[in-house]
Each structure stands twice: as C-alpha cells, then as structure tokens.
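[Meeting: bench + compute handoff]

Bench side (C.D.) handed over the final construct sequence. Compute side (W.E.) agreed to return the predicted structure before the next meeting so the bench team could plan truncations. Sequence as handed over:
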Amino acid sequence: MVDANSAYRLEDAPLLAKLDAFYLIMIEQPLGYDDIYSHAQLQRQIQTPICLDECIHDVEHARAAIETVACRILNIKLGRVGGHASARRIHDLCQAHSVPVWCGGMLESGIGRAHNIAMSSLANFSLPGDVSASKRYWSEDIIEPEVEVTPQGTIRVPTAPGIGYRPRVDFIESLTKRREVLE
C-alpha cells in the first residue's frame, strides 16, 4: 500500500492509474482531506482500491464515501471519529457493505493504543493496521505490560475485562508538571 496524504489532485488520475501495475492493496487518501466527491471520481478511473482516512469523521461521512464508491477500504481512527461508539457504527456500516476496514493510529500512548487493539479485534478489521509496539515511539510507555509485537507481526488481544493494560500511575505522576482539580 501507499499513503499519499492528500498530495495529489484529480488531474493526477493518469499518474495514479500507473500504480495499478503494482497490485497494491490500496492507495490511502490520494486527494484532498475533505474531498469525498473527487475520490469517487478517481476511484472510477483506477483499479487500485482507494482507502479514505482523513475524510472520515463520523458514520455519515462513511456512508457518503460508500454510497458514492469514493473508496473500497476505510481507515478508522478512534480519536478522529469520536471514540468507540462512533467507530463501531462505522465498522458495522462498512461490514454491511463489504468494505474492509483497518485501524490507524495517531501516535497514542499505551492507553490509546490499548483501545486501538480492542477496536481492531472486531470482525471487519481484516487488513493490517498500524498499531505498533510501545517501544516504537516511547522509551517507556505509561502502561504495563507494554504493547509488544510478536515475531509474526501481530499483537495479542488481552482477554481480561477492561482494556487489558494497567496505567503506571507512579510513572504518570513523575511526568506530571501541573495538576488542576475540578470540583
């Protein structure tokens, strides 16, 4: 796959069509971050599946993308779509329309990463995500155990109640520079 991060315009469709020769899983967000309509036009001109990312903020954006065939894959980011309930609605809509999804991270600490792992365990998360090990971005994470990637490139999903990881309260306290208590 490739991620264009909105670097192209619809006029670049002939150039993007050349990627079809590589049989990529997807090209992520080739056009404007908020342009579902032009992505639909582009998807009709190329064979490589488009994955929308930045365009999707809620289930209505996902519905518009699916109904206009602006993409054939969706990236769901918990932080961008408003949390678990919204992400679940998007997941279920995509699953009902046979649109695979994957979980994108946004450089979360371990707590956010734990939530991404839980979300990624839903049935329609069928493509590899970019949830990564704690050590990739942090010398020490604020959770224990730290998130680890197996030699097979997977992350084990915790089976205990809750998010499956414990916040390291003492470590968080040692990093705290200011505290405000609201009553």
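W.E. noted at the follow-up: The beta strands are 2-3, 27-28, 50-52, 73-76, 101-103, 143-144, 166-167. C.D. will use this when planning the next construct.
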